[in-house]
Amino acid sequence: MRKTIININIVTALSEMEGTFSKPMPIGNGKTIPPTNKNFRLSMATIGHWKAGKMFEEYLFWDNQSFMKQIGLAQ
Hints:
- The protein is mainly β.
- It contains 1 helix and 6 strands.
- The protein has one domain (3-70): Nuclear Transport Factor 2, Chain: A (Roll), CATH 3.10.450.50.
- Helix content is 9%, strand content 59%.
- The strands form 2 sheets. It has a 4-stranded antiparallel beta sheet with strand order 1-2-5-6, covered by helices on one side. The protein has a two-stranded antiparallel ribbon with strand order 3-4.
- Strand 1 and strand 2 (10-20) form a beta hairpin.
């Protein structure tokens, strides 16, 4: 994790996520995109809203164009 900011009910974090596109990606209506088995590594941000010690809302952000390029679905 690169940076974390904590408030009473809000936690934000900048981090890295990485993985391999190794399982079909659901795209709706029962359709999927077949895996390419390519690796990806992305910077990402998350904002979590907490109440009574439990997260009830979370927003995740990353560069989807970079993700699609890395897994072989965009140029």
